[in-house]
Design goal:
The radius of gyration is 22 Å and the shape is globular. It has 18 helices and 19 strands. It is of the alpha/beta class and 495 residues long.
Length: 495
Amino acid sequence: MSDYDAIVIGAGNAGLTAAATLQRNGVRTLLVERHNVPGGCATSFRRGRFEFEVALHQLSGVGSPDNPFSLRSGLFADLGILDKLEFVEESELYRAVIPGQLDVELPADWDAAIDAIGASFPGSRDNAARFFELVKKVTFWQMAAMRGMPPDRIDPVLFEQGLRPAKEVLDEYFGDERLKQAIGVYWVYLGQPPSKLPFQDLAIMLFAYLEFKPWHVRGGSQAMSAAILEVFLDAGGEVRFNCAVESILADHGRVHGVRLADGEVITAADVVSNASLPVTYGMLDGLDVPVPIAEDLSSRRVGVSAFIVYIGLNATPAELGFTTSTTFINEDADDNRTFASWRTLEPARALCVSCYDVAPIGFSPPGASHVSLVTLQYADVWDKVAPQDYARTKYSYAQTLLDLCERVTPGVRDAIEEIEVATPLTVMRYLGHPGGAIYGYDQDATEGWLFRDRDSRTHVPGLHVAGSWVGMGGFQPTLESGARAARHILHRTTV
């Protein structure tokens, strides 16, 4: 008899939802995590008077009680954590700024967003309305396809428009480059410029936030991770922190457990890995990586990481000029040049600025604010920095993020009380992901649902994978990925 029915490696978003789903359905599950807290990117940390949100900028998939989406009406309800979480709604999608050229706020509402575009760009309202209708139509059919609708029943608009580069679609509807920047700025959430990003990916993000609003969680994403862990433990699950897995053990072509870093062997009929795919398959002991998997992995490119400046400010958002929870600041409208800069140490050209106290999540003391400045970056640029130059280079580069932020919210520097800086190497060390990749593989067209099996069969009986390396990155997709992996196990054991 095995020690457990299932072992879950990693207590990130997908690992937590996989473990909780299994245990709540009677599968004896052990969750192992090499850090001392659950959550992966869904965590927080303290510096001085401030608690800092690690990675959550806007949570999709929630929706309101009257208009719920898949997290509220599905996963969170199924896990029994709705009453453990307090959701904080953001009234705006974002503020998009090119200093001296563009400054527009888009409300999280279809009609209000169209009105805002029309007011900022006279004569564009009708085109904006037509564009958003296309967003709705493409997203509807994309979701139908992802749920298994046969191709011959899908409206051709999905293939005619959804698979085109987002830039081509934006160019057809709008002439002003500033306007295209304002509407297409979510591309930085996915790490691919509009010239490479399939329109369907931009469309589904706009739809998710316009239809179901952007949300946060009071207490930050750590509160969400803690809630999932609590229901897992309440159901009888076991967790080990500060516990690293060295190997995934296989025999006679089937996984049968894991070996921990201290040499302990723990057996189970199923193993779910929330680690990256390269790390997961690199841990296989007793079985070669199946040829289809090896060929698949060799065809994929490790995605982008992030450079992050966490700031605690002794001033309120209003005093500093923050009017929205999310502000995108771009040097100009040249997205391809911005994308190219992510492989260099030239001054930051684009920022996602999150001010967690415009719609407060409870992390800052009275009269203060907690802000993160994020630019995307590939890790290889930091691999070339000599160890003796690392700290100086890190803080020098952080200054370029502050420089760009100061052009929109002057006075931020003078209000700094606490500051912490993370590079792609920091992300790589913490997550254990190759290249510190925050979205897994590069999120281009080849990584979409049309070309990749979102269920990601491992071709190894007993081994299951979940997380950002399986499908689309981000909080909602990874949370749902873990539950999906768990359901595959439950389905097999009940048929």
